[in-house]
Each structure stands twice: as structure tokens, then as C-alpha cells.
Amino acid sequence: MTAAKPHPPPRPADDLPEAAGRLLERLRSEGRRVHAITNAAAQVLTANLLLAAGGTPSLTIAVDEIVAFTGRADALLVNLGTLDNERRASLAWAIATARAHGKPWVLDPVFVDASPARLALARLCLAGSPAILRCNRSEFAALAGEEAAPQALSAFANARRVVVALTGPVDQVTDGSRFVAIANGHPLMTRVTAMGCAATALVAAFAAIEPDPWRAAACALMVVGIAGEIAGEVAQGPGSFVAAFLDSLHAMEASDLRRRARLS
Amino acid sequence: MTAAKPHPPPRPADDLPEAAGRLLERLRSEGRRVHAITNAAAQVLTANLLLAAGGTPSLTIAVDEIVAFTGRADALLVNLGTLDNERRASLAWAIATARAHGKPWVLDPVFVDASPARLALARLCLAGSPAILRCNRSEFAALAGEEAAPQALSAFANARRVVVALTGPVDQVTDGSRFVAIANGHPLMTRVTAMGCAATALVAAFAAIEPDPWRAAACALMVVGIAGEIAGEVAQGPGSFVAAFLDSLHAMEASDLRRRARLS
Amino acid sequence: MTAAKPHPPPRPADDLPEAAGRLLERLRSEGRRVHAITNAAAQVLTANLLLAAGGTPSLTIAVDEIVAFTGRADALLVNLGTLDNERRASLAWAIATARAHGKPWVLDPVFVDASPARLALARLCLAGSPAILRCNRSEFAALAGEEAAPQALSAFANARRVVVALTGPVDQVTDGSRFVAIANGHPLMTRVTAMGCAATALVAAFAAIEPDPWRAAACALMVVGIAGEIAGEVAQGPGSFVAAFLDSLHAMEASDLRRRARLS
Q1: From the CA of A91, how many Å to the nearest CA of chain C?
Q2: C168-182: pLDDT as tens digits
Q3: Looking at this predicted complex, what is its ipTM?
Q4: Is A18 touching B (CB cutoff 8 A)?
Q5: Minimal Cβ distance to C114: which of B57, B72, B249
Q6: Which of B99, B160, B98, B100 lies closest to B135, judged by CA?
Q7: pLDDT digit string (tens) for B112-136?
Q8: Between chain A and chain B, how many beta carbons pairs sit less than 8 Å apart?
Q9: Which residues of C touch A85 (CB under 8 A)?
Q10: Which CATH number do you get for residue C242?
Q11: Number of structural domains, chain C?
């Protein structure tokens, strides 16, 4: 890969909470369609998260239809969590369609650290110029060949010209020149399947509105983290957490974002 | 298509709420199995809706098994929302099996307006004589080639000898000679994925009991709309709405139907 | 099959509630990964049940990846509920991988009574020496060719050298020499899709910790039954039951197990 930079990129004291409020407001009033090729366990939560936030999902994976569906969507999400033959054939056509139409697409290389076949495919996908790469530490390490330190994220973002959105207890988003750490969230988010996969769909929806993918990714992860925090305050456990999360996302107001954002 | 009729069919001041209560009572006491070839995002909610209403789902899509599963079901639901190769191969055999056994089947041409391949397949399915076609306005327009006005629904129902059950803020059900509009429901139903797909499974379950498919479809959509209304009164948002919807369907009494039905 | 024994095996007045508490504690503190090849309607609940109990799921069904994923898991669950071509190809490799690594695997022959193709496949799977067979009465009868009486379960377990975990209003678990009946549970568990399928994932997770598969299976079914009982006391219906079930599993304490276990 490229050599790590001596310092991480600057951390702008930013207007991200206000920007996130405006993006949520526009998604609710104008709508956006996200086509999601995603894993079987993530499809329902992904669709329900988009609907709760004001967007519209479509989810087909059929190779005969993927060009038509991607062509009428405003953004594309490619999640590698279930690589059956149908999805494998469809995702290359979906990426090509998004690029041909100039629409943003987001890559979520789920479990890329668990299988060599998947790692090879994820690298081919990266060559298709996603606007944003959303992954966790182990997935980043597998893709980049080095630990997920801020400098490494920044070097990778610069070299691949992609926004890296690394999720974990503290999310980190960088485009190589700007960097933000988002400390919102709740531990129950790790006890519900596909929360990260579904969150990436909001990243794609915001990228369909906001032309700066760094701001789109940071705002989406902040909104998801804050919805999780609010849900964690009322949930009795991981079962009731899911409903509370979707409810709080649906009801979220700009003041929640301003008051709760923990950025650095 | 055929010429539109000068007037829509009559709107019988009907005993539909009582009929719906009896159908629900019979489903709970006698049970019915619905085999559903449905899209991946709808499978869980479809199964849980059937179980909450007293029915039994089966969901396999494997071509080697579809004849055995459809043959022992009481009704078939074909939803075109995920047209992978396996489902595409299976649905023709499932329809043939339902017809051979004289069992009712229901077609849900999801997103048929979004892809030419899907529209062509939906037309082939329609030629297999479903008892009921459940769709929304855009899907009807794509299939029929004209706007979803009451006269057009009626003409289509007459020409194809199918009950048309059009869902939206007000549902409309016609067999060409009878027509009912159902104004029950709640806006949160559009913020949960696959609510319409799952509702169609109750249409199929009722069609397995009630030999008149117009009454079966109208009663099922009324029950679903009223369950949605009750849920909307207690839910905090789209997340808690799903659980509240299934709970209210499970607990629904004949008196809820009589008191809340808004038919015209 | 083999001749039925004259008497069922002994019913040890056992320390199962204490053992179940220790297994749950170890799963929460040490974690275990279960790879589940399971049906489409069961994937989300299976993953969420494992996460609520402290485990980690992986769910891929892709034949190119199944060896890598099964190889890094601590146990394997094979559920026959959706036998599409991809799953059919993958499950043989998954079973071979689990055996090669000496990891326990659990067979759930869903609906094996409904299709001859599935019955033939289930018999082939049984020849791959699962540690535990989890099924209901009709599935057992189809597999064994006789009614699911305690003697028949015991004879089958002895002949096949497999623990039989038969679920129903009262669960029965035998390895041919030991037998326990577990009367915990709640009627709403039958009104939620895939509860039995998901429960089997906890059987697999416990089998990854406890080398005695009879104890692992009995403890897991007891934990699930008691979580269901607690949930049934607070749920308003089958919709709210699912969340309450996951919440009570997540919060379960050893004292709940001691106080509520109904074993014989």
C-alpha cells in the first residue's frame, strides 16, 4: 500500500450536526430510493431503517433485473454478506449501472476477513470506485493489509480516492484530508444482527442527497449512533431495542442531533 | 385492453364485517396452510402474519420440492418481489399444482412497474388464472396499460375473470360486478417493509375458506386495515408498529370489525 | 429400524438447571461462533437469538465460502428448511468440514415429513453423524418410520448414536441411556415463525462448550423454554412476544433457571 502519513488529517470543528439534520429533513420531504444488494439477514432491517428515515428501499438481486432496478435508484449499496451465485453475478452489473448513471455507491465488505474468495471479490469491487467504504476494524485490516489506525485509514482513503467509514465503539470517517470521530452509539447495537449493514443504507441515502461523500457518511453514522443511544435508554434488551431504534430514527429532530452529537 | 365500462359496478351495502369475523374465527379454529413463494424481505412478516391470524405458512422455493409443498397447502401465494432463478423456476410448477388440485392462488406482482422482465413474467402468471390479483396503483397501471380508476379495475376484472384487490390509502376490491372501497388502515403501514406482501397472505388464507374470492379479498384487506389502525393508536413509530400490528391481529374480535369498518 | 426397548431410559434427578446457568455464563463471557445454514425465514431470529445469548452467528450459504466459514466456527447448525441449489451444495461441504475439524454439528430436518426429496436428503445428512438431531413429532416419525414415543426416541438414539431432542409442548431429550422431559415454554412460541429453528442454534452454541451433547441439548431447550415463559407473561401477543423473548434470554439469570425449571 502507500506509506502511512506522519500525522492524521485535521479534525474540523464542524457543522456536522446541523448538516445531518438538514439531510434527514430532505430525505423525509423529498425521498430517495436506495437499491441494496445485501445479505439475507440484513434485508428486512435495511429496508425498515430506510423507510423509518424517509427513504425507499429496493432489494432485488436477480441478474435479469438488476440493471433496471439500479438505474431507477438514487444510490446503490453493495454488501458482500451473502455471496450466492445470483448476488455474485448481479453486483458487477449493479456497480456498472451506478457508474454509468453517475450515482453514488457504497461498499460494505462484510466478513471479508473470513474467506479468501470474499477478499478477492471485495478488491475487485473496490476497483469499481465506490464513493464510500463502510467496514469494521478486522475488515479494514484484511482489505488494507495493515491495522486500522487513523493514519492508515487516511492513507488508504487517499490512495483509493474513497471515503473510509470505519465503525466500532467510536466511528471514524475520513476522505484522507478530513477526519471525524463519532462517539455516539450503544452497546446493544452489537447484540442485534445486521445493525451495521442497515446503517450503511442510510450512508447511501445521504450520499444520494449530499454531493460530499465524507459529510454524507459522517452525518449518517451520527444519526444512527444517536438513534441507538436514544433506543438504548428505553429498551429492555436486544429484542425491544430494534423497535425502539426504528422509532427513535423516525422521530429524530434536529435538536436531538445538536444536543447529543459527540464528535472529535 | 377492453373498453372501460360507462359506470363502476354497484357497491353493495354488505355484511362484510360479519363475514370477516366468521372467516377469522374459522381460520383460528380450523387452520389453513398457505404456501407462499414470496420475496426475501417479506418471508418473516408473511409467516408471522399468518401465524398471528391462526393459519400456517410454508415458504420453500426449491424447485424439487414445490409440487409436494403446494400440493399439501390449502392456497398458494405468488409474490414476484425476488425473481432469482430458483423462484422463477418454481413458480410455474407451483401455479400448475394449485390449478391441478383446484386450490385458489393469489398473484402479487410487486414492482412490476420497475422492470420489463418482471412485467413479462407477471403477464404469463396472470394467464395461469389466479383467483385474486393484489397490487398497488403503479403495478396495476403497468399490467393493465391504463390508470387505476374504478372503471378500469372493473373492466380488467371482467376481461381476465380475476378479482382485483388494489391497495392504497383506500383499498378497492372488485370482481367486475361488485365493488367495495375500504378506508381502514394507518400511515405507518407504508413505513414498514412488506406490509402489503404479508397482507396478501391473509387474502390467500381467507380464499382457502371462502369460495367467493371477492368476499375473501375484501374481508382480508379489511381485517389487515383495522389491525393497522389499532396498532397505529398504540405504536411509538414504525418499529413498535410491527409488533403492535401482529398483536392486534391476534387479538381481533368480531366487535372490532363491526365498530371500525369503513366501507363504501 | 431397531426393536423398541422394553422401558424408556432412566430420568436422572439432575443438576441441569445449574449446568444451564454455567453454560449461559460461559457463552456470555467467552463467546462462541455458530455457523448456521438455515432457512431464509429463520436467519434473522437465529442470529438475534445467538447474539442475545452471548454467541456470534455467521450465516453464509455460498458454496465457495462454506469451508472457510465452517472451519472458523465452533459449531455448525444445518437446517433443511430452504433447500435451494446453493444450500443443497453447501451443506455437504459444511458437514465434512465440521467433521474434519472435530466440531459438533446439529441437524434440524424441518418439514422432512412434507417432501420425499427432503426426507432422502435428511437421511444422507444423518449418515454424517450429527451430535444432536432436533425435530418435532411429525419430523421424527417421518425419519424414524415410527411414532415419537420415548422408547422409539431412545432406540433411534442408540441405533444412530445421536442425541434426539424432540420439541413440542413438552420437550424430550435422550441419548438412548438418559432421558429428560422439559415442560417449560409458552403457547405463543408456536405463533412465531422459526422459534424452533432459532432455538436449535442455542443447542449448537452449548454443544460448542459442553462436550456431553445430551446435557448441551437439554440445557439449551430449557433456557429457551424458560425465556419463552417469562416473555409470555409480559407480551401482549405474538408480535411483542419476539422482542420480550430476546430480552428475557439476554437478561436471564441462574436463579430464573433454578426457580422455573420443570424437568422430569
Answers
A1: 15
A2: 999 999 999 999 999
A3: 0.92
A4: no
A5: B72
A6: B160
A7: 998 888 999 999 999 999 999 999 9
A8: 93
A9: 62, 86
A10: 3.40.1190.20
A11: 1
